[in-house]
Design goal:
It is a single chain. The protein is an all-alpha fold and 462 residues long. The protein is built from 20 helices and two strands. It starts with 5 loop residues before the first helix and ends in a 20-residue tail after the last helix.
Length: 462
């Protein structure tokens, strides 16, 4: 009997990256087939494959760009499928698979544990299953709270049954940062100055975008603070450096985004020009939040000034924070790249934040993520411009929204031709799983990176 060598076994076994890539692709294809069933459309007719595929992709990738209105084209059955796809996309296929394993009371193999660790970018597999259970319970708890709060708005308007459904759909969509709704054709524009609607949606978007690691660190420290009865200053000091960094970056992007939207849209009559000061601040704050990967809108995106659109592209590219439901390259990734640049300019030997050094490995990873995302996004913008003959700003806004899994559009998505829709789908899919994951998936090299050492070459930069 011939034994299989370790090297041959690795070649025959799918890597974590390949499982994640294929898992998302499989979920999209199954979702597409379900959406093509005549019962999934409001008129009871079969939806064409490209429309079903686009809708399944935007749902699984929690993006929110749509080619047909979710509230009118799809039946209740179709909307249920879309909601399930959004929930799967928010959790990730690996989490859903793990949840099924737990329901069936199956043991987790070491390989499965490593897969979960890779998916959530965790440092070790210790306490992994506990972490997973907390992720699922915490997500359902926040979504449930959001749905209850939404009911206070939607049940008086739509009646109990429809109001309840709209509340559940919006809560899941907002928490998963999907940006899809079943209210009407104009997203949340009719609720532009409705304070409860704005605050509930903002709460859900930020909750999903902060990341589970931040959640659990804050909750553990809150419990400890109540037991030991110490104040806010000690509480802040005892938070992990990642949590403190995420909170600081989130506040920075929210505040700076609000101020920039206020500045660029102040006199724009089509957006916030005619609003009172309080409503201008509220609407600008919501736009700053939704730029971060949510996709809901309380002002028409096609009416934004070019300056706001460019700021929006940057914010969509950065996205939310790691290990959450948000998209983009992530706030901490962008910060690490900038921190490394600033450290080099200042002549520091290593980047330091909160008294902790940032490792070279982390810096290399952050640089690779930013560069691959940026190159992919630029390539897709050029492709969309050429295939659909559309202006650069609209194309850039659409693609940055797709690769950042945001869902904001300047009214372009539904008018795209078949080739344009395929370009946007590629952007959404690659943005959800990450361009680096795509590159690793297609990589044929399995050799050890450290087997060969090369002598330093003489190169000149700058």
């Amino acid at each position: 009997m011939q034994l299989v060598s370790e090297k041959e076994f690795k070649k025959r076994t799918l890597s974590s990256t390949q499982i994640i890539v294929l898992g998302f692709l499989g979920a999209i294809l199954v979702g597409s087939l379900l959406l093509m069933i005549p019962a999934a459309s409001a008129e009871g007719i079969k939806t064409d494959f490209l429309t079903a595929l686009f809708t399944a992709t935007t749902s699984i990738c929690v993006t929110g760009l749509v080619v047909v209105d979710t509230f009118s084209h799809w039946s209740f059955f179709g909307q249920i499928i879309i909601l399930l796809l959004i929930q799967i996309g928010g959790f990730g296929v690996i989490t859903i698979y793990s949840a099924l394993m737990m329901l069936l009371k199956r043991n987790f193999s070491l390989r499965t544990r490593l897969l979960i660790q890779d998916y959530y970018n965790l440092d070790s597999i210790e306490g992994l299953i506990r972490f997973l259970i907390k992720v699922i319970k915490g997500s359902f708890l926040v979504e449930g709270l959001g749905a209850i709060l939404y009911c206070l708005i939607f049940i008086p308007r739509f009646g109990f049954l429809k109001g309840l459904w709209v509340s559940i759909f919006n809560a899941v969509s907002a928490f998963c940062n999907a940006g899809m709704d079943v209210i009407g054709p104009t997203s949340l524009i009719e609720y532009q100055t409705n304070i409860p609607m704005n605050l509930i949606t903002i709460f859900l978007i930020i909750s999903g975008g902060l990341g589970y690691v931040v959640w659990f660190d804050c909750l553990e420290n809150i419990k400890r603070a109540r037991k030991q009865k110490y104040g806010l200053r000690v509480f802040w000091r005892r938070l992990g450096e990642h949590t403190k960094l995420v909170i600081n970056l989130t506040l920075f992007f929210l505040i700076s985004g609000t101020l920039l939207v206020l500045l660029f849209e102040w006199n724009n009559p089509q957006t916030i020009g005619g609003l009172s000061l309080g409503n201008k601040i509220l609407t600008s704050f919501f736009q700053s939040v939704t730029f971060r990967t949510a996709g809901f809108a309380t002002i028409p995106q096609e009416a934004l000034t070019p300056s706001t659109c460019l700021v929006g592209c940057i914010f969509m590219f950065i996205g939310g924070s790691p290990v959450g439901t948000a998209g983009g390259v992530k706030t901490v990734t962008a910060f690490v790249v900038l921190l490394n640049v600033m450290s080099f300019i200042r002549g520091r030997s290593e980047p330091v934040v909160f008294g902790r050094a940032v490792s070279e490995k982390l810096i290399n990873k952050a640089n690779a993520i930013v560069m691959t995302n940026l190159m992919m996004t630029i390539a897709l913008i050029v492709a969309l411009m050429q295939l659909c003959q559309i202006p650069a700003l609209s194309a850039a806004y659409e693609i940055f929204s797709a690769t950042g899994t945001v869902g904001l559009s300047r009214g372009l998505t539904s008018s795209l031709n078949g080739a344009g829709r395929i370009v946007v789908m590629i952007g959404m899919y690659a943005g959800r799983i990450g361009p680096i994951s795509m590159a690793l998936f297609f990589s044929t090299s399995r050799s050890d990176k450290n087997e060969i050492k090369y002598s330093s070459g003489h190169f000149i930069v700058g």
